[in-house]
Specification:
Layout: E1 13-14, H1 31-34, E2 42-46, E3 61-64, E4 68-72, H2 76-96, E5 108-113, H3 116-119, E6 127-132, E7 144-148, H4 153-171, H5 177-187, E8 191-193, E9 196-199, E10 206-207, E11 219-220, H6 227-231, H7 235-238, H8 251-276, H9 279-293, H10 298-305, H11 311-326, E12 333-336, E13 346-349, H12 352-364, H13 371-384, H14 389-401, H15 405-418, H16 423-435, H17 442-456, H18 463-475, H19 479-492, H20 497-509, H21 513-527, H22 533-555, H23 568-577, H24 579-590, E14 598-606, E15 612-616, H25 635-646, E16 657-665
Parallel strand pairs: 4-5, 5-7, 10-11
Antiparallel strand pairs: 1-2, 2-6, 3-4, 3-13, 6-7, 8-9, 9-12, 14-15, 14-16
Length: 669
């Protein structure tokens, strides 16, 4: 399914659905599990290409540089040149876009198919390449870029756009969404030629007026949001078209897509004005970024950096710039630039098992249509290297796609038994123990998960594994233990939106509501238009409601509340904040009963320290609030809800509190 794109690159965002399997822990914290659930949205660009031979016909090469691990069947020299080009792009963006004393050291996996025909077995037919944060495999645990034939101009723009986001997340993660996307749009067209770097070029035509349909073709400048409006936009407003499927051709869908396109171009045009129009604006913009990086709020840092410059003035100057753009008159920024030295490369021929595993994971992305081919590659990899962790994990993923959890567990166990000290093998064993049901009893799964989590909490060097372990401890009422782990994960991979989300949940469950709101704000900002955007925004909304209730209760206490007790509004807000988590319990239960809906009543006793001392689910009666929905009697779902509530942390008070709260669940219409 291709979802709403932007501008004339309507295929720039694609979600690849893989066969869903019955699993517990719907909020996935691992790349391995993502193979069989829902892969992250990918940015895609369109272009042409040549046809070529079938799977596995050409030898594959692996080239490693400081920042890239490239796998390709384009040939040894060609693969090395691709890797070198990617390093040059990285250095160019680092030098001119984000000059910092310390190199963030981002590492990206890259797969380059020799032919378009081979690429199209996993990528959209009209695309030149795609980029995604999760590629399903524990081998491809880093962000992964996939393309074919080399790095085309369209693929290069996509690559630099997404790499810009990673630099932004590292340097200034809290910047507003318009600035994040505007910078990515601005830098993706950067060029170097004859010792000169050119910035600010646009490949988007603009036209006067506000009509999207009348000729000549282009972005209607009067349809762009104003400077004030774009600066005030929330992620939900900015990514207006992300909820619209590509095949939805209704007028409402077209309007939402156009609105998102307008938001992107409004963001780009404001960045272009601030970076290219004058040295004064460029200096002020850099000072604004520096203040944001230091943690200052957006509004106050803008006022300080742009003192004497009103938003109305910026709007007028941008309008004049856009009018020139409609006449194809654009002001470019050119600066001297020469890259010194050649990137260091390490290359080797890939082993047959590695090639089969690479192909297998890629084919598995297509789901049912390529499942047989993926299984063939998985079995070839296992036969070639019986001790390969990656080969066994791939075959396990194939079994899961076929809904055979027992066979999948056997492969996971083989990988772990044969490689007990291998990090990926341990991670796969942990994920399987925490996510899946029906293959082991709960006690055995729990013991396995606890043992691996305890053993690897201080050993792992992978941010994805650190995040998964932190999520596990947070879910098992050990949020304080999880905090340093997920903080390490964020430091190692600042582009990990789900890590910020885990951090927010852990902070909230230790009672630090203000810090939880800040962390969740970063989760929303870093996720952008990704697949978790809606759920992250929901969690931010409920956390902000708790913080607001606490502040309001202190400033204007309700005369009906006892000063010795937790205010009723705060109690209700904290219980509401459990909504996104208890909804996971419901979605898991619906895997077994798709018609399930109703209410679960939770009676909670909070002690004076704010901790949950007692929690139970009473049957409907005189002591429970009225509900129009039936009582849910599913014991596993009810226990899941109680466990989530037991992990909550309320404000401290002189006395404890008792509350009966209804959680209501309705199936989608």
């Amino acid at each position: 399914m291709v979802v709403a794109g932007r501008s004339n690159k309507v295929l720039q965002t694609v979600c690849i659905l893989i066969i869903a399997v019955a699993m517990r822990g719907l909020f996935v914290r691992s790349l391995f599990v993502a193979v069989v659930v829902l892969l992250t949205a990918c940015r895609v660009t369109s272009t042409g290409g040549m046809l070529g031979p079938a799977v596995g016909e050409q030898p594959w090469w692996y080239v490693r540089t400081k920042h890239f691990h490239v796998r390709s069947d384009t040939g040894r020299d060609e693969t090395a040149e691709i890797a070198a080009d990617l390093e040059r792009f990285y250095r160019l963006l680092f030098d001119l876009g984000f000059p910092m004393e310390k190199d963030p050291g981002f590492v990206t996996d890259v797969i380059v198919f020799r032919t378009k025909e081979a690429y199209q077995r996993i990528g959209p037919n009209t695309s030149a390449g795609f980029y995604q944060d999760e590629f399903g495999s524990l081998t491809f645990a880093r962000p992964t870029f996939v393309t074919f034939g080399g790095i085309s101009e369209a693929a290069r723009r996509t690559f630099i756009h997404e790499l810009t986001h990673r630099f932004v997340h590292y340097a200034v993660p809290q910047i507003p969404v318009w600035m994040n996307e505007g910078l990515a749009e601005y830098y993706e067209t950067i060029e170097v030629d004859n010792g000169k770097a050119t910035l600010g070029r646009t490949f988007q035509p603009f036209k006067r007026g506000e009509s999207w349909t009348m000729t000549p073709y282009g972005i209607p400048i009067d349809a762009l949001p104003s400077v004030a409006d774009i600066m005030a936009m929330s992620p939900k407003e900015f990514y207006a078209g992300r909820s619209v499927s590509f095949d939805d051709d209704s007028s409402k869908a077209r309007d939402l897509r156009n609105k998102q396109v307008a938001n992107y171009q409004s963001a780009w045009s404001l960045i272009h004005l601030l970076k290219n129009s004058s040295p004064d604006y460029a200096d002020r913009f850099e000072k604004w970024l520096q203040r944001l990086a230091a943690g200052e709020p957006v509004s106050t840092s803008f006022d300080a950096a742009f003192s004497g410059i009103s938003v109305e003035k910026l709007q007028a100057e941008r309008a004049a710039m856009l009018d020139k753009l409609a006449l194809r008159d654009i002001q470019l920024l050119r600066t001297d630039y020469k890259l010194e030295g050649e990137p260091a490369l390490e290359s080797r021929a890939m082993r047959p098992a590695e090639v089969s595993a690479t192909w297998g994971w890629a084919l598995l992305e297509k789901g049912k249509s390529e499942l047989a081919a993926a299984e063939q590659q998985a079995r070839a990899a296992v036969e070639s290297e019986p001790n390969s962790v990656e080969a066994h994990h791939l075959l396990a993923a194939v079994h899961l796609a076929k809904k055979d959890a027992t066979a999948a567990q056997q492969e996971i166990d083989k990988a772990y038994t044969q490689n007990p000290n291998d990090e990926a093998a341990a991670y796969g064993k942990f994920i399987f123990a925490t996510q899946f049901r029906g293959t082991n009893d709960a006690a055995a799964r729990g013991e396995t998960a606890e043992r691996i989590a305890t053993e690897w909490a201080t050993r792992t060097t992978r941010p994805d594994m650190l995040n998964s372990l932190a999520w596990y401890f947070t879910k098992h009422r050990q949020a304080a233990k999880a905090l340093p782990m997920v903080q390490r994960a964020v430091q190692m991979e600042p582009s990990c939106a789900v890590c910020f989300d885990t951090l927010a949940v852990a902070l909230f469950r230790t009672g630090d509501y203000r810090a939880a709101v800040s962390a969740q704000t970063l989760a929303v900002a870093v996720e952008g238009e990704g697949s978790n955007a809606t759920s992250f925004q929901q969690r931010l909304d409920v956390y902000q409601a708790v913080q607001s209730a606490v502040v309001l209760a202190k400033k204007r206490p309700d005369p009906n509340d006892s000063p010795d007790l937790i205010p009723k509004a705060v109690l209700a807000a904290v219980m509401n904040a459990a909504g996104p988590d208890v909804d996971e319990c419901y979605q898991i239960a619906r895997l077994q009963n798709k018609d399930l809906e109703g209410s679960v009543f939770v009676q909670v006793v909070v002690d004076s320290a704010g901790k949950v001392a007692e929690v139970k689910s009473p049957a409907p009666g005189a002591d429970t609030p009225p509900s129009s929905l039936p009582h849910i009697t599913d014991p596993e779902m009810t226990q899941c809800v109680l466990s989530e509530v037991q992990s909550l942390h309320f404000p401290a008070a002189l006395q404890g509190a008792r509350l009966t709260f209804p959680f209501q669940f309705q199936k989608p219409k």
